[in-house]
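User: Modeling request: complex.
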Amino acid sequence: MKRSPADFRTPLARVEGLGAARAGTHHFLSQRISAVALVPLSIWFMYGALGLVGANLAEVLVYLSEPLNAILLGAFLFTALYHLSLGIQVVIEDYIQQEGTKIVLLILNRFFMWSVGAVCAFALLRIAL
Amino acid sequence: MAASIAHRMTGVALGGGTLLIAWWLIAAASGPAAYEVFLTVGAHRAGQAVLFLFVWALAFHLLNGLRHLAWDFGFGYKVSTARLTAAVVFVFSVLIAAGVFALTHFNGTFANGGGG
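Assistant: Request completed. Predicted assembly structure:
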């Protein structure tokens, strides 16, 4: 391979081919794959779970104790939160220019995803099990 | 162009929506008193408005997301096509939100359980 005289990158950096962002296509692909998974999951959520809003507690508990419903709601929430954190990450990277603020917000973004996920998982398990 | 920024805004709004789902699940797991609070807020006019916006945002982000996936595979780039699909997404997202909303009301779930 011919090397341009203006290329100051190390051989390792050239092999990795990741550039200044230090990342490859993982984020792009993850966002698309989670999006595809969310198509059927959100249709199920709109059809099933939203029909329950306003139902009394006993009806909700019966619905969420059904294994298939609990699993699908868990899968929907997990995938949605993952997709959300990827999307919010792009929004932060696009609009926040100050480096320190950006890093803090990117970390808070991850905290948000895991916190909401932990709360939902605990509540869902407590109801379903 | 409007659909592009609306995709971002509905995406961020749905992030807030995950907090509503978390509240719903925690209230259900906590017991009748906590769930009553959730139902009372949900039955209120403001609660119903938030719920409608949540369903609309989800429907919009879902439909417009399909548009983005089509672009990823190289379809729908013609300007006239993109304008048409954007309009379709706006119209159908409102129809779906109205439909889901109407269905849940006809079910009687809102009317019976919502304290009304």
